[in-house]
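Limitations

Structures in this collection are predictions, not experimental determinations, and the ligand pose is part of the prediction. Treat each record accordingly. The example that follows, with S-adenosylmethionine as the small molecule, is included so readers can see exactly what is and is not provided: the inputs are given verbatim, and the output is the predicted complex.
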Amino acid sequence: MGSRVRAFPRLIRTIFTTTARVVAGRKEIVAPPPIPGKLHDLIFAFRQSKVLFAACDLGVFDVLHESDAPQSAEDISSKLTTNVDATTRFMDALVALELLEKTKQGKSWLYSNTEMAKQFLTKSSPDSVDGYIRHSNQLLYPLFGGTGSMAYTLCQYYPNMKITVCDLQSVVDSAYHFRPSLEDCPNQGNVSHVVGNFFQPDLPKADLYVMSRILHDWTKEKVDLILSNVFKCLPSGGCLLIAERFLNKDKTGPKSHLLQCSICLCRWRERNEQQQNTSSF
Ligand SMILES: C[S@@+](CC[C@H](N)C(=O)[O-])C[C@H]1O[C@@H](n2cnc3c(N)ncnc32)[C@H](O)[C@@H]1O
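Predicted complex:
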């Protein structure tokens, strides 16, 4: 014990002098700034979704609902025929996401559904969104997506999804210039490009249509036509996601949006948020 105590100052001195030598011999090492929490959350958000999707696929919430009492990880794993250790970690992840509760009984930890899981995630509940969650995990997404940058980002986060980028002939013709390499985007094979015109009713079929920065500069009549064409193609239960940036109240910003050449040079029908909310879509 005594020799260990004496060894400490020597160890600290050694670390200190070694570090000083390393710093003296090299350029100063500047630590990168920490990733902002919001960005970090966005980067990792898909992991949370994936845990939820896997729990629904395995039927975790149903297994817990079917038994009267909370269950141990061993009980759950034997019903799901899954590995016990992996199941324990998986149950704990679901507790961290506040989808399950964990209580101690004697020496065992037991798991049960939270009220939210009972109401929305068990198949037998009248409010169940289980089908919607499974559906969300494997969708076909066509987009009026220009050269496809959003599509190539999406395919990295959702590797099971088939994505079709739909645009005018001239844009589809040049899209291959913008295809990322296999090395940069291993799932790029899930993205295809087709010619389509949103003023025509024969758009490619999809479960979800994403229209990003499409509606903002068309007149009310044109917007109605585009939306009715998309609506005609939507299957029952299908969705349309609209993503837009709005000008501020007096239409003097945001600058990056204001200066977009399509707005400045072409039609100039840009709306602010208030106008968007009171228009027909
Ligand atoms: C502002 S860009 C938005 C591109 C992409 N969605 C994004 O968020 O980056 C508008 C896109 O709509 C396409 N577009 C314009 N008229 C169209 C039409 N009639 N049918 C299909 N696409 C059209 C353009 O070629 C362009 O790629």
